[in-house]
Every structure is written in C-alpha cells, then in structure tokens.
Amino acid sequence: MSSKLIVALDVNDLNEAKNLVTVLGDSVNYYKVGLELFLNTGGKVLEFLKDQKKKIFLDLKFHDIPNTVAQAAKWATTLGVDMFNVHASGGREMLQKVSEVVSETAKAQKIDKPLVIAVTILTSFNEEGITEVGYNGSIENLATNLAKLTKEGGLDGVVCSPKEVENIKKVCGREFITVCPGVRPKWSVSGDQKRIMTPKDAIEIGADFLVVGRPITKSNDPYEAAMKIINEMEQI
C-alpha cells in the first residue's frame, strides 16, 4: 500500500523539503510537487527527489489554450517526472493535444512516458462553491463528465475526490487512474478540504493513489504519521 501513498511536499523551500524526505525515509516513495515549491526552488526539488530515487507527481495543473498547454506538457515530459496534470475543463482539443505531444516527446527522447491526468473538480469546492462559479448540476456528475472527457481525450486518469471514484470507475473503467486528494485520517483535521474520506475508505472504493499532505507534513512525527496512514490503508 505504500506505493499508493503520495505525500504532498507543500513546504516553503528546498531545505524544508530535503529534511522532510529524509525524515520519512523509506516509508514514502512518491511525492507531489506543487506550484509553491516548484517555483520557490526553480525546479531544483525535482533533481533532489530523482537523486533520492523517489517518484514525482508534478502538480502544476496546466490550464490554457490548447497549444500553450501542449507545449507546457512537452517540457514537463522532458523533466522526467512520473506524473503531471492539466485541468480537464480545458476541453477536448486541449486534452487530445496533450496526449499526442506527451507520447511524441517521450518517444523522441527515448524516455518513459509519464502518466498524464486531469483535474476534475478541486476538493476545496462544495456544492455551494461550485454553483457560485457558474456550474450547474451536482459535483459528482460534473466530475464524472469531466473524467469521461479526459478518457476520450487520451489521458491516463483524473484527480478527483474519493467520493467520486466509484462513479468514475463505472463510467471510465477500472484501469482509468484516480488520484485522490481530500484524504484525511480520522485523527487529523480537514483543513480547507471539503469533500474528504479516510484512507481506508478511499482504498476500499477503488482509489489508485491517495495524496496526503498536512496530516503527515505538519505532524510532530511525520514518519509515524505516514506509517499510521499506510497501516490504515492496509486494513481492507
């Protein structure tokens, strides 16, 4: 189960990231690098993680016109990360261009093709918030429709709340990858996440990867917190 846990390196700088990865040791093999840390380190955190033989989910959520996102995806592929994401709401043409350019780039560079996934509905949204920005319908239906569009666009999976996993798997197939933030063990606080689920419950309903940040990174003992979460994931 440790291979299904992705720890969000939502820290301020490279030294803090290095310290956390060192403390977590062999308990964690997969890390998410988001906007703050990527920009604050000029991307150097990626080289550090690769030197440590860790897997990388580059969480920059590209969202722009199709050609711009396709070029961003091309350069993300050359970075040698294991996974990166775009926004599904960028539309079919954008998703298709990303799928094509990633495959072409990986082949030309003779490197492994990263998993490319699309963000459906951010887990900071609840029904009230999603209505305020102009969406109609339930979050579950919106997320499922965006997942279907993502699959048709040729991408590998989606970022979604664990609450949407079952429906997305039914529509898109068991092999379609679901990467789930909004995972909180019972002993932690929910923070700004609205649509949450425990690690055990998320694994039981079919989530492929769980992204966990503050319950581990803000813990007094990150290693112990990570092991508690992995142990909970295994109780299925």
TrEMBL record:
<feature type="active site" description="For OMPdecase activity">
    <location>
        <position position="59"/>
    </location>
</feature>
<dbReference type="GO" id="GO:0004590">
    <property type="term" value="F:orotidine-5'-phosphate decarboxylase activity"/>
</dbReference>
<feature type="binding site">
    <location>
        <position position="123"/>
    </location>
    <ligand>
        <name>substrate</name>
    </ligand>
</feature>
<feature type="binding site">
    <location>
        <position position="184"/>
    </location>
    <ligand>
        <name>substrate</name>
    </ligand>
</feature>
<dbReference type="InterPro" id="IPR011060">
    <property type="entry name" value="RibuloseP-bd_barrel"/>
</dbReference>
<dbReference type="InterPro" id="IPR047596">
    <property type="entry name" value="OMPdecase_bac"/>
</dbReference>
<feature type="binding site">
    <location>
        <position position="213"/>
    </location>
    <ligand>
        <name>substrate</name>
    </ligand>
</feature>
<feature type="active site" description="For OMPdecase activity">
    <location>
        <position position="61"/>
    </location>
</feature>
<feature type="binding site">
    <location>
        <position position="10"/>
    </location>
    <ligand>
        <name>substrate</name>
    </ligand>
</feature>
<keyword id="KW-0665">Pyrimidine biosynthesis</keyword>
<dbReference type="GO" id="GO:0005829">
    <property type="term" value="C:cytosol"/>
</dbReference>
<dbReference type="InterPro" id="IPR014732">
    <property type="entry name" value="OMPdecase"/>
</dbReference>
<dbReference type="Pfam" id="PF00215">
    <property type="entry name" value="OMPdecase"/>
</dbReference>
<comment type="subunit">
    <text>Homodimer.</text>
</comment>
<feature type="binding site">
    <location>
        <position position="214"/>
    </location>
    <ligand>
        <name>substrate</name>
    </ligand>
</feature>
<comment type="function">
    <text>Catalyzes the decarboxylation of orotidine 5'-monophosphate (OMP) to uridine 5'-monophosphate (UMP).</text>
</comment>
<keyword id="KW-0210">Decarboxylase</keyword>
<feature type="binding site">
    <location>
        <begin position="59"/>
        <end position="68"/>
    </location>
    <ligand>
        <name>substrate</name>
    </ligand>
</feature>
<keyword id="KW-0456">Lyase</keyword>
<protein>
    <recommendedName>
        <fullName>Orotidine 5'-phosphate decarboxylase</fullName>
        <ecNumber>4.1.1.23</ecNumber>
    </recommendedName>
</protein>
<feature type="active site" description="For OMPdecase activity">
    <location>
        <position position="64"/>
    </location>
</feature>
<dbReference type="GO" id="GO:0044205">
    <property type="term" value="P:'de novo' UMP biosynthetic process"/>
</dbReference>
<dbReference type="InterPro" id="IPR018089">
    <property type="entry name" value="OMPdecase_AS"/>
</dbReference>
<feature type="active site" description="Proton donor">
    <location>
        <position position="61"/>
    </location>
</feature>
<feature type="binding site">
    <location>
        <position position="32"/>
    </location>
    <ligand>
        <name>substrate</name>
    </ligand>
</feature>
<feature type="binding site">
    <location>
        <position position="193"/>
    </location>
    <ligand>
        <name>substrate</name>
    </ligand>
</feature>
<dbReference type="InterPro" id="IPR013785">
    <property type="entry name" value="Aldolase_TIM"/>
</dbReference>
<comment type="similarity">
    <text>Belongs to the OMP decarboxylase family. Type 1 subfamily.</text>
</comment>
<comment type="pathway">
    <text>Pyrimidine metabolism; UMP biosynthesis via de novo pathway; UMP from orotate: step 2/2.</text>
</comment>
<dbReference type="InterPro" id="IPR001754">
    <property type="entry name" value="OMPdeCOase_dom"/>
</dbReference>
<dbReference type="GO" id="GO:0006207">
    <property type="term" value="P:'de novo' pyrimidine nucleobase biosynthetic process"/>
</dbReference>
<feature type="domain" description="Orotidine 5'-phosphate decarboxylase">
    <location>
        <begin position="4"/>
        <end position="229"/>
    </location>
</feature>
